[in-house]
Amino acid sequence: MTEDEYFSYFNNITKYNNVSIEKVDAVLVSSVVPNIIITFQFFARKYFKVEAIIVDLEKKLPFTFAKGLNYIGFGADRIIDITEAMQKYPNKNLVVFDFGTATTYDVLKKGVYIGGGILPGIEMSINALYGNTAKLPRVKFTTPSSVLGTDTMKQIQAAIFFGYAGQIKHIIKKINEELNEEIFVLATGGLGKILSAEIDEIDEYDPNLSLKGLYTLYKLNK
């Protein structure tokens, strides 16, 4: 899409929701796709006469990185997740899971980022199973009634759900062992709600963590 197409979409949804487009005085962009960033820079200049604020590590952030940690390529999505997590719980040791296209987890100890991990997202795992086999169907991610599936579709759903939940539980267990301190586990992302209900180790699920983090970052940098 071009900046003009994005503006047409934006104009329609603001009108529908009775939001005055004239009141927009800042545009923030959180993306890991360079072409989209460039398009929205044009969007901000052309329609709002402002320079878009691009989420990156050059901005003022509420956290720092541990010495010796290579943070080159650190994603904008992770920056805004951590920013909001620190805003909500500034005095806790945090583990932030984002169940998106990829699943990421980030660990902060007293406001210092000490490491994390990236694994294939749930939908990515389902698509890989479907795309690389001849007869297995593509299934919807949902909470199964049993770990013992009674047909092919239910078996895939059971294994994906409980297998993925098991991964997350074990990752949290290993983080606990390494930190040997109390941690607070925060989750977000589209499929995080389903998993959070299964994983007792997740203390809170916030579906809007990223959007809130975008606004928090704006307030820190405006």
TrEMBL record:
SUPFAM superfamilies: Actin-like ATPase domain (SSF53067)
Residue positions binding K(+): D98
Entry protein name: Type III pantothenate kinase
Co-factor: note: A monovalent cation. Ammonium or potassium.
Keyword match Phosphoprotein: no
Keyword ATP-binding carried by entry: yes
Residue sites binding ATP per the record: S8, Y9, F10, N11, N12, I13, T14, K15, T101
Annotated keywords: ATP-binding, Coenzyme A biosynthesis, Cytoplasm, Kinase, Metal-binding, Nucleotide-binding, Potassium, Transferase
Broad EC category: transferase
GO-annotated molecular function: ATP binding; metal ion binding; pantothenate kinase activity
Organism lineage string: Bacteria, Fusobacteriati, Fusobacteriota, Fusobacteriia, Fusobacteriales
